[in-house]
Design a protein that fits this description.
alpha+beta
Length: 700
Amino acid sequence: EIAQVVADVAEETYHQVNAQLGPPDKHHYLQKIAIIMEDSSDYALGFASSFPHRVIRISLTAPTAKSFDMKFISWLKIVITHEYTHIAHFEMTAGPTTALHALFGQILTPNALQPMWSIEGLTVYNETKFTTGGRGIDSRYDMYLRMASLENQFSTLDQISGYYLTTWPDGTAPYIYGQSLIHFIAQKYGEDKVIALSEIFCEYPYLGFNYAIKKAISLNLEELYQSWKDNLKEKYQLQAQKILSQKELTSSKQLTKYNYWVDYPRWISTAKGDKIAVRVSTPHSYPFIQIIDPLSPSLAFAPSSTKNQIQPQPQPLIKRTYGSDSSFSLSADGSKIIYAKLDDYEQFYRFYDLYLFDLKTEKETRLSEGLRVRDPNWSPDPENPQIVTVINQSGTNNLALINLHSSNSSINKTQHTYKPITKEDIVYLTDFRDGTQLYQPSWSPKGDMIALSAWRQGYQDIYILNLDFNNIGNSDLQPIFCDKSTDLSPCWSPDGKYLFFASDRTGIYNIFAFSLSDKKLYQITNVLGGAFQPDISPDGTQLAFIEYHATGYELHLIKMDPQPNPNQWTEIETEIEIECMGPQIITTQQNTTWPILEREHQSNSLDISQKINYPIHSYHPLTSFWPPTYWIPTAQLAKNNLGIGFSTELKDVLGFHSLPLSITYGLLNNNLSYNFNYYNYSHLPIINFYLSGDTVLASP
């Protein structure tokens, strides 16, 4: 069923992009494009290649709002548009490159030599142009450029021309800057100039990209870049002046300076006072969980500090917490941390699984294998060994309760008292089968409600699940409001009367509070960058959150009134969009079977009507294995011989079979050298046959 939807989306996208870049008979060639759908990982992935075959690989797992605008209706439409634009763009040829492509085949892709900001900029431009979402209208991408402009920390042209930047914003720089530059060219000079730029370059790649830019818009690269920066500075200075005129900026205390990405603040009570646990990512270390002391923000808090240490050292508490899309949670008694880690499963899969860390013994225990589970949140009841969490299945998320079994209150170093999770421990709270995405569920202080952020059909909103423990299958799930704003990371006030969350509803991400009693919405922070991931201290006197700077995401802290006074906050009017209001979403209990076993039975209706009933047939590798799609001329200079020949590779689109080969003819010795190296990857063990030799040909 998903394949049928993908085929419809691909056909639509094919005609849209070709109409923009030029018909196939002008720039590229009429051949089938293979689209490979994968459900082998719990992170969003798209990849395109025109060599040796035209292939698009897509992951069914959708992205999160940390990396992507969530206003799209279909993730498949976004990723196929992005990746097919790559293929159509790479295959553009003109003049001499058309002749060379006809001679040598798929290996010639002149536009692949463009700088990465231009390559990725065009694809992000198209994913925004041809869909309802895209990173071109993403509030985060706008935030990145706004702060680079206001703090005068633009990356250089060299830094955005590849994926190799090791400082913020690292490999995303070509996407962030590229989409804005391409949009600037289209807006100021016309979209036809964007296309002309690639048409010129694909015909004369040896003259360089600067030549193509100058011929298309009469500016060189440096002049274009400066003009673009001047335009952004003017735009964002006006925006900053408007923000400052409306409300005073929030004054906060910065607690970290990692100059990269600090995330998921969680308060933890210790004998030395309340601390904040965060997840830290840097380009120079594995991701880790760290405990920060608000009174000594330059140092991290280490629970195992010895008496000989004058001050605690900033050592990671939990190392190598792979995967950036999952939060963590502390037990009600503050003795344990549960988190999801992206890990290998059965050699071919990369899934999130649950781990538990005991703060007393500093021992880590793995709780699941292949469960595809993230964003665990512990019940506020110390006597209730349950967590609520999100489970991913074939691109659809569902909410589940998991019972953790333990005979003791703590893990000791010789015996794991927490048993591995089994399917009997899981109770599903929802039964979505339509591509719904769920994020960061959070228990209310009384444990009778769960708040979460959910993406459904283009809307990312905060939902509240009212639990009915007498009949868990009849629990009631409702949005607090439904609009085009992206609402993330809900957390409760200690008294359970307010729900705090991050939202871009003012055009800039800020922290908001929703009053459950009178349904009023209040703005808590007012920042120029962005405010995310709120978490209230146990006594309600401090609010920890993540604030964005031009150098990355850092932990910040502001003081709060323990008895919230809405009169001190700014009330925000909300508009409920009628088309989003549907029938009440009633959750039903799902069969508690392992996702890895059940994913082929999941449907995934993505609000795209099926147009053609495409035939279904088995995969036949030989149809793409032969004939070869390219060849490379070779020359070989030996001691007493001069050889000329060619090399190529036969390969099917799934990579089950591979046959690199080369043949060289010796001009002086009248001999033929050959190398054949066959691999069969379709089964284990991998099979390899190698044949190499040198034959003297008979004289005429």
